[in-house]
Each structure stands twice: as C-alpha cells, then as structure tokens.
Amino acid sequence: MNNSSQNKMASGSMTKLIVTMSLPPIVSMFIQAMYNIVDSIFVSKIGMDALTAVSLAFPMQLILVALFVGTGAGVSSLISRRLGEGNRDAASKAASHGFMVSLIYSVLIALIGIFLTDFFIRLFTDDSLLQGLTAQYLRIILIFSFFNFISNAGISILQSTGNTMMPMVSQLAGALTNIILDPIMIFGYFGMPALGVSGAALATIIGQLVSFVLIVVMFKKDKSLEIKLKNFKFEKAILKDMYIVALPAIIMQSLASVMVSGLNLILIAFSDAAVSVLGIYFKLQSFIFMPIFGMMQSFRAILGYNFGAKNKGRVLNALKITLLFSVCIMLAGTFIFQIFTEQLLGMFDSNAEMMSIGTKALRIISLTFPVAAVGIMISTSFQAFGKGMLSLVISFTRQLLILLPAAYVLSKISGLGLFWYSFTLSEILSVSIAVPTMSIYLKKTFSAWE
User: Fold this and answer.
1) Domain limits of the chain?
2) What is the pLDDT of residues 132-143, one digit of tens each?
3) CA gap 315, 23 in Å, rounded
C-alpha cells in the first residue's frame, strides 16, 4: 500500500473517506444488481418455466458467492489489519494466499458442475422440463466459475488496500458485457442462434471473463502489494489467520443457500408461481442490498485498518457514519418497494397469480429493510475485527434458527398469508441479539487497549 492510502485510512476525514471509498464499489454493485435483474427479465420473456428454472438454480449460485465473498472477507480483513500494523510483507503474503485458494475453489466447483448438477436439481423438482432448463443454466455457471473466482479475489485484495476505483472499473465492464450479450444470446440476434437459458448463462460467463482480464491487467500495474505465485507454498499461520474470518464468513454466506433452498421447498408445495416470486424478490432485493454490500467492502478495510492501529476514536466514528448511511439507503429501498410494487413485478411479465402473491410479499418483507442494515453493519464489523465466529452466530440465528422454522410454522398456520412475515420476525429478533453483542465486545476491547 502506498503512503497516501495509509494516511488516508489513518487520518483522513471519516465521512469523506467512507463516501469516496464506498462510491466505486457501490456503483459497481449497483450495476451488478441491475444486470442480475435484467438477466431475469430477459429469461422471463421465454416463459415462467424458464424463470422458475433460474430461481431453482439460485441456491447453488449462492454457494459460489459464499466461497468468494467469504474468502474475500478473510483475505481483506487480514490484509487491512496487517497494513494497519505496518507489515506490508505479511499483507502481500495474505494476498498471494487469497489467489491460490480461489484457484482451488474454481477446480472443485467445476467438478461439482460436471458430476453433481443433475443430483442437486432432482432434490427440488420432479418436473423433467424444469430439470432440463435448470441444468442447462447451472452447469455452465459452475464449470466456468474460474473467471468469477479469480476476478473476485483480485477485487477483494485491491479494496483491502484502499483502492476501490480499479475494482469498480472491472466489475462495471463485466456487468455491461453481460447486459449487452443477454438479449443477443438468449433470443438469437445478429446471426447468433437463440440459446434460451443457456444463452443467459453464457452471457454471464463472458462478462466474468472480461472482468477477469481487466483484473489481471490492473494487478500488473498496481504496486500496493507484491503478489508472488511462482514457487508458491502455503503457510499454515497465514491460512489460520485468514480462515479465522473466512471460514465463518463462508458458512454464513452458505446459510443463504440453505435458507433459499428451504424456502423453495416450502413454497413449491403451494405453486411454481410462489417459487418464482421468491426468486424475483431476491433479484429485486439485490438492487437495494448490493449498494450496502459495496459500502461494507470499503467499510471493512477502513475499520480493519484502524482496528489494527488500535485507534478507538476512528473505529467508533466509522461505525456511526456507516450505520447512518446504510439505514438511509435501506429506508429508500423500503419506499421503493412499498410505492412501486406492481411496477417492479410487472418487469418480469408476472401473471395474475404472481402479482397477487408478489405484491403482498414485497410490501411485507421490505418493512424491515432498515433493521437489516443494522445487522449487516454489525456482521461486517466483526469480520473487520477478525472475529468471524461472532459474525457467523448472528447470521446463523437470523437465517436458520429463526427464519426457516418461522416460515414453516407460519405457512402451516395460514398458508402464504403469514409465510412472508417470517422475514420480519427474523430481522427484528436477530438484531436484538446483535446490538448488545457488539456493545459488549467493544467495551471489552477498548478496555484492553487502555
């Protein structure tokens, strides 16, 4: 990391720092959320079966997200803390480990894509048409995951050094490529064959390839850290420090896959339309949540740096400012979901059944968006502090201990009418646990520093 980046995170205006460092990842995450939505909009034009197939593939895609987001959290937290301590060599070794681990992930996921895709799909549906469509989409995404893993590893490493502009450029280029290619490859424009859901998957992979190429070019120019992959050897101490945060974060992110899978199993007993609505919700939700996650990427680097430097004042200041910004973003999201519900669902060619189910679902779930912002901020903070297990406990409580059991019980009591309130219940109860946990941890940590 260069001196200007060090000085910026150590002594710059916290509000200005959070805004300037967060804007690039927020923009890139916003664009990524947009192309996720655009992807589903184009797929919905094929038919509800195609949209349901993509929704059924979503839990397995979340496993990929869990691996690169969770590992990214571990690598980013370790790098920023080591830079805060002034140890550039240790930070560079952590970055090299991040790349090599991501390479191993991509090989394992490709093997899963080749041999286990059909098995996974059969867990959720006996419909041969849905099985075929889901397999077409998912197998391509899994087998060619290499570009996604490596580019996301590079993005996390650059962000941990305070460089958020270059990752934004990479993500933007990949997202825009995907958006442009979606209609061409799905419907067969400009002489291309109409590939349907396979075309949507291929457009995604090509977008990830573009992002990968740009990340490789950027790392050749960036001198913040020295990445050494030739004659590389894993070091147990670095892996331990990395996975103290990464493993709980991976498990935490994987809980989302378990959660969505469980919710799909409950909903498919009602109708395919209910499953499609849940898929639509998660696509639309990402439009609001992705900017928050973008801000949290820079927040984690800032917080980790100042935590490593044992700067109590700046740690507290970062927490307060980020909480204020994230709640404001979520309030805007609640407003959008409450006022423009029909228009949002209409983008996906929703039929009458989907409109009826979706209108109620979106309005109920969005009421607790601001509460979710508090939980996300606290979870990210524990990752920055190197306390990944605390982050995991909070997420596990929210997604498995509360949400899934509540969804099952409420659906049995009153069908879909009460099902959606399980989201409200889980957010409120989990935050009521997270807030005092954070307060106790900070008091103990600050006392030890004095």
Assistant:
1) 13-449
2) 999 999 999 999
3) 20
Locate 61 and state its tokens. 């895609």
Please provide residue 391's backbone torsions phi and psi, each rounded to the nearest 5 degrees.
Answer: -60, -40
How far apart CA 379 and CA 393 sit, in angstroms, is: 9
Angstrom distances, CA of residue 56 to CA of 122, 185, 258, 274: 10, 21, 12, 12
Reference 345, options 289, 280, 436; nearest CA is: 280
Nearest of 382, 328, 296, 280 to residue 39 by alpha carbon:
280
Q: What is the DSSP string of 56-86?
A: HHHHHHHHHHHHHHHHHHHHHHHHHHHHHTT
* pLDDT over 70 (residue 17): yes
Among residues 61, 51, 62, 63, which one has the least CA distance to residue 280? Answer: 51
As a whole number of angstroms, the distance between CA 65 and CA 167 comes to 17
Written as six digits, the tokens of 60 are: 């397995």
Q: Is the dihedral of CA 241, 245, 251, 257 positive or negative?
A: negative
Token pair 């195609």: residue? 50
Q: Count CA atoms closer than 13 A to 257's CA, side-chain side.
A: 17
Considering only CA atoms, which of 421, 432, 434 is closest in space to residue 366?
421
Q: Average pLDDT, whole number, for the chain?
A: 86
Q: How far apart are CA 225 and CA 301, in angstroms?
A: 15
Q: In this structure, what token pair is assigned to residue 297?
A: 């990427």
Cα 201 from Cα 290, distance rounded (Å): 21
Q: What is the pLDDT of residue 7?
A: 53
Query: pTM for the full model?
Result: 0.68
